[in-house]
């Protein structure tokens, strides 16, 4: 896998790199002071000048100016290298489930580090305190906050807050104090590390980065509350660690240990709370502001992503200015903003935002990990057996203590407590990551003379947890047989859950109790009444049931399109809804253009699925709101009505419904028939669906079609009277192979008959019909068919 | 003092809970021994609940009260009130597997009765549509057609889950209780259908 990475380096780049490295000064000091850099630059310039063949005055035909581009060049190379590694990583399907991607990034980092070390090259000053906190950290946090599944998060909010907040504190102080006690033991030579320094180390080493294991969890499909615990911890943990870190640094700066009085400690605690809450407050405000602004951007949708990103970043910066927690601010901003922004921005902006966010965070993380790898392979380590080993041990011990005690307490308050198995998993997922490393790396050397030791210890802990715990947690989850989630996207489930929510809220109302469902209910009402009016462009309340339904429909539509069931031209423009002669098989371009049209014209559907993967976005087939579809179809319908044609073809077939209806098990072989797809109209009944009726060849087709025309226009009109048909589509294709092809395909999907009653259509129409209108179309067809063949099954029967 | 229902393992309330519920019962009924449908109008928040009518109906449903196969009672006394409440008791982890299954079935039956308003033992398409319409009724922008199609789609799905492959002549009448159980097979209703307060004695009554 790594070989292909090397190969990817173009020979020219490689040569360039080698030449540059050869001529540069060797320096192993990782203190990236500007002066040394400049000096180095100057040196190399001189060298280059000296190295050129003509001394002094001639114009050199070929010259090299590496230092000009060095920093961006190397950074770009690193990022590319990591990307190539990721590609390789995902090519082996099994790997992502086995180990977290962080492993991969660290390996790449070590590789780069060893190259740099081996060639005695001075790596560019990528990371210092301001760069990290101002540029590298915000994207990572923003992405975490934006992709957080809100509903499960808030359902478990109490537990999450309790666990993340107190857990971080317990871990930090526990590890700090224990290490302090170890340092007191003279034998280890650590007595110059005082309490504050230990506490600080404790706080930075307790910064867990379990997002790395979330991908593994997702593979194993663990149950929702467990997933949310880990996710919530990841989200809040960074903020808390950084706050603690800053406070302790401030303490350290108060030169003498004895100066610290209880007042200061109290002030520290108060500050902790204010910093946290203040950050959240600012985040929410900025979230609302940006949501409000996106309400007006319909004409310049190109700047929508810009607004989203800039406001989030602004919230971070403003919070940092006031010494509040920027991390919590940006998280709160992302969470608040997401709901409203998603509804306001255009589809393309939404996609852009998602992908850009992933990209930014991915780049940041890559850089941090590579940097970590680089600093691993180097000379600035100080290995102290006692310190390192005890750190490792204490990390595990304290995490176990905090998990089991905190969950023991919170289980008393939860209706569905976390089992011991769950708690073991939570304990085991305490994987450290980029956060700890950065904080360790950025320790001011002046205040921490033993910084190198801290860095070494941190690195060891990170390597240990990421590799050993990260790789084994997958099998552990499977071995412990943790309770799985059974989320599946189905309308029934959505309906039932919704019903359950209301039922519960109702019962609680009757009992006069308050619970978090009521809180949620109240919030939703408030939201609908006030917030949405202000913040959302065209206030169309969305229902998740409808959204899910439409989404599933769209998915089906696209699938059917891909299977060649719909003809391409039909899809594109209404006026082309003529009889289609000799339609060809759908080419990929057609499918693409169809998809494009779909996505271009629809709003998006809010997705309710849980899965979160830090490293990639879920593939979306197409998610759009069918309000547009409705309108379009109605228009095309009316148009085609006016033109006297029958149903327009250009609509996606009755997606779902097609699946659920049976069709006569006529042998495909004998079938030289037209395939007809009834559509799912508002009454959805009959779905004819599939190629239930097959008709014979062209000669017949002509007459049949005429007959169909007349008979169909009637139902069409009635449909119009009855209301707006929801989904409509129809299709014909005379070509033979396609029929048989489709027949065969359709024959593979027998569905149960659905029995439907539709009073709306009972009026008039074919009174002798026994079926509902759409069905009535079918039976007319059937009757026609029966005249020609002895085919079967009236699809529907009235109750 | 515990209240035990002979029919099922569900209904063991603690005396605190019974007291609380009794207080609430008295409030709702206006100190009368029985509650009628009109008394539910005293619950203000219930007005905004889209499935309000179904919930109230569930309280008076003879099937839930275990008084008969169908029909509605006119009034319920405290015992009946408790019976209904027992459906929402969280499943105790101390219960064994069989009891858990029983509980689950009972809860699902309650739900089933909510859907099946005409007590014929099947959820027909009409009833399903009714439910969906009610659920979406809070949303003024969704048209009736959409609600219908959603119901239809859901029914399709249910049919495919329950019956799988069907003969062409077969007709799917509606969802029976067994089918309903099948639909819910994978989903943990135990975790969803409970009312928190029944577990805790500490939350005060809010009027």
How does this structure look, described?
The complex is a heterodimer of chains A (799) and B (207). Chain A has 799 residues and is mainly alpha-helical. Chain A has helices at residues 2-8, 11-23, 34-51, 66-91, 95-98, 101-118, 129-146, 150-155, 157-184, 195-205, 211-220, 224-253, 262-294, 304-321, 326-344, 347-376, 385-413, 420-428, 434-441, 451-480, 491-511, 516-535, 544-562, 568-572, 588-601, 626-642, 655-660, 698-722, 736-747, 773-788. In chain A, α4 crosses α16 and α10 (195-205) packs antiparallel against α12. Residues 1-13, 15-54, 566-586, 599-611, 619-629 and 644-799 of chain A have low confidence and may be disordered. With 207 residues, chain B is mainly α. Chain B is built from eight helices and four strands, in the order αβααβααβααβα. Chain B has helices spanning 15-29, 52-60, 62-65, 78-86, 97-115, 125-135, 144-162, 177-183, and strands at 34-36, 75-77, 122-123, 175-176. In chain B, the strands form two sheets. A two-stranded antiparallel ribbon of chain B has the order 1-2. Chain B has a two-stranded antiparallel sheet with strand order 3-4. In chain B, α2 packs across α5 (97-115) and α6 crosses α7. Chain B is globular and about 50 Å long. The two termini of chain B are 26 Å apart. Chains A and B meet through α21, α22, α23 and α27 of A and α1, α2, α6 and α7 of B. Chain A: Keywords: Antiport, Cell membrane, Ion transport, Membrane, Signal, Sodium, Sodium transport, Transmembrane, Transmembrane helix, Transport. Chain A: GO terms for molecular function: potassium:proton antiporter activity; sodium:proton antiporter activity. Chain A: Residues 759-771 have a biased composition (Acidic residues). Chain A: This is Sodium/hydrogen exchanger. Chain A: It is a multi-pass membrane protein.
């Amino acid at each position: 896998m790594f070989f292909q990475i090397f190969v990817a380096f173009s020979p020219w780049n490689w040569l360039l790199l080698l030449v540059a490295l050869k001529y540069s000064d060797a320096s192993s000091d990782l203190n990236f002071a500007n002066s040394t850099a400049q000096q180095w630059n100057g040196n190399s310039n001189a060298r280059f000048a000296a190295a050129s063949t003509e001394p002094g005055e001639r114009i050199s035909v070929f010259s090299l100016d590496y230092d000009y581009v060095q920093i961006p060049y190397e950074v770009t190379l690193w990022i590319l290298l990591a990307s190539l590694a990721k590609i390789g990583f995902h090519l082996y399907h099994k790997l992502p489930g086995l180990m977290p991607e962080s492993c991969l990034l660290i390996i790449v980092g070590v590789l780069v580090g060893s190259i740099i070390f081996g060639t005695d090259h001075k790596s560019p000053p990528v990371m210092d305190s301001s760069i990290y906190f101002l540029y590298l950290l915000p994207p990572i946090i923003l992405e975490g906050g934006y992709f957080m599944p809100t509903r499960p998060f808030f359902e478990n909010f109490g537990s999450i807050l309790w666990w993340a907040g107190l857990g971080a504190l317990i871990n930090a102080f526990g590890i700090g104090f224990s290490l302090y006690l170890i340092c007191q033991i003279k034998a280890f030579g650590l007595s110059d590390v005082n309490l504050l320094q230990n506490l600080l180390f404790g706080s930075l080493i307790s910064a867990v980065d379990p997002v790395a294991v979330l991908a593994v969890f997702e593979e194993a499909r663990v149950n929702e509350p467990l997933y949310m615990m880990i996710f919530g911890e990841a989200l809040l943990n960074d903020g808390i660690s950084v706050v603690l870190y800053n406070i302790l640094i401030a303490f350290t700066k108060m030169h003498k240990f004895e100066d610290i009085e209880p007042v200061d400690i109290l002030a520290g605690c108060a500050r902790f709370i204010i910093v946290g809450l203040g950050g959240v407050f600012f985040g929410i405000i900025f979230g609302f502001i940006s949501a409000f602004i996106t309400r007006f951007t319909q004409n310049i949708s190109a700047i929508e992503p810009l607004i989203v990103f800039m406001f989030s970043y602004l919230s971070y910066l403003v919070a940092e200015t006031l010494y509040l927690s920027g991390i919590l601010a940006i998280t709160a901003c992302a969470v608040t903003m997401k709901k409203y922004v998603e509804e306001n921005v255009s589809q393309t902006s939404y996609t852009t935002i998602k992908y850009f966010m992933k990209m930014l965070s991915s780049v940041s993380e890559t850089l941090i990990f590579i940097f970590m790898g680089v600093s691993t392979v180097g000379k600035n380590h100080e290995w102290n057996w006692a310190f390192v080993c005890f750190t490792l041990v204490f990390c595990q011990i304290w995490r176990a203590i905090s998990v089991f005690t905190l969950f023991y307490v919170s289980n008393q308050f939860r209706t569905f407590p976390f089992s011991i198995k769950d708690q073991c998993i939570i304990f085991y997922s305490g994987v450290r990551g980029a956060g700890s490393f950065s904080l360790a790396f950025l320790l001011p050397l002046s205040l921490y003379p033993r910084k190198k030791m801290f860095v070494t210890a941190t690195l060891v802990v990170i390597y240990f947890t990421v590799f050993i715990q990260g790789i084994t947690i997958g099998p552990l989850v499977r071995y412990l047989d943790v309770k799985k989630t059974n989320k599946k996207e189905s309308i029934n489930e959505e309906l039932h859950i919704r019903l359950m929510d209301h039922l519960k809220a109702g019962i609680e109302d009757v009992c006069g109790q308050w619970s978090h469902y009521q809180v949620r209910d109240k919030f939703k009402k408030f939201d609908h009444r006030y917030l949405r009016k202000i913040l959302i462009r065209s206030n169309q309340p969305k229902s998740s049931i409808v959204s899910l339904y439409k989404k599933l429909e769209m998915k089906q539509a696209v699938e059917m399109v891909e299977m060649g069931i719909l003809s391409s031209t039909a899809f594109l423009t209404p006026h082309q809804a003529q009889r289609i002669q000799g339609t060809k098989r759908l080419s990929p371009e057609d499918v693409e253009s169809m998809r494009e049209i779909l996505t271009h014209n629809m709003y998006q559907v809010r997705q309710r699925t849980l899965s979160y993967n830090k490293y990639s976005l879920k593939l979306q087939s197409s998610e759009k709101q069918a309000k547009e579809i409705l309108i379009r179809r109605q228009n095309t319908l009316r148009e085609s009505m006016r033109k006297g044609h029958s149903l327009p073809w250009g609509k996606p077939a009755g997606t779902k419904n097609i699946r659920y209806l049976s069709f006569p098990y006529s042998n495909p072989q004998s079938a030289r028939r037209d395939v007809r797809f009834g559509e799912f109209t508002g009454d959805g009944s009959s779905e004819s669906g599939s190629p239930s009726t097959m008709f014979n060849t062209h000669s017949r087709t002509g007459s049949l079609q005429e007959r169909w025309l007349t008979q169909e226009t009637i139902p069409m009109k009635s449909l119009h009277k009855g209301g707006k048909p929801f989904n409509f589509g129809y299709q014909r294709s005379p070509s033979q192979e396609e029929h048989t092809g489709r027949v065969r395909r359709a024959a593979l999907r027998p569905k149960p008959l659905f029995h439907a009653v539709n009073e709306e259509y009972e009026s008039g129409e074919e009174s002798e019909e026994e079926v509902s209108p759409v069905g009535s179309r079918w039976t007319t067809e059937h009757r026609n068919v029966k005249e020609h063949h002895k085919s079967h099954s009236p699809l529907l029967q009235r109750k | 003092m515990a209240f035990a229902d002979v029919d099922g393992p569900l209904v063991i309330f603690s005396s605190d809970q019974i007291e609380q519920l009794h207080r609430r019962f008295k409030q709702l009924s206006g100190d009368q021994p029985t509650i009628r449908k009109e008394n539910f109008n005293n619950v203000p928040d219930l007005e905004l609940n889209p499935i309000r009518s179904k919930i109230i109906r569930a309280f008076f449903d003879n099937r839930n009260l275990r008084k008969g196969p169908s029909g509605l009672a006119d009034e319920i006394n405290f015992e009946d009130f408790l019976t209904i409440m027992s459906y929402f008791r969280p499943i105790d982890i101390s219960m064994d597997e069989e009891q858990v299954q029983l509980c689950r079935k009972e809860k699902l039956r309650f739900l089933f009765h909510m859907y099946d308003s005409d007590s014929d033992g099947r959820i027909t398409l009409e009833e399903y549509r009714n439910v969906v319409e009610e659920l979406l009724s809070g949303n003024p922008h969704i048209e009736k057609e959409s609600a219908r199609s959603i119901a239809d789609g859901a029914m399709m799905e249910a049919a495919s889950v329950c019956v799988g492959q069907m003969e062409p002549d077969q007709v799917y009448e509606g969802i029976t209780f067994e089918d309903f159980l099948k639909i819910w097979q994978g989903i943990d209703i135990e975790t969803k259908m409970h009312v928190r307060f029944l577990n805790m004695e500490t939350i005060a009554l809010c009027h």
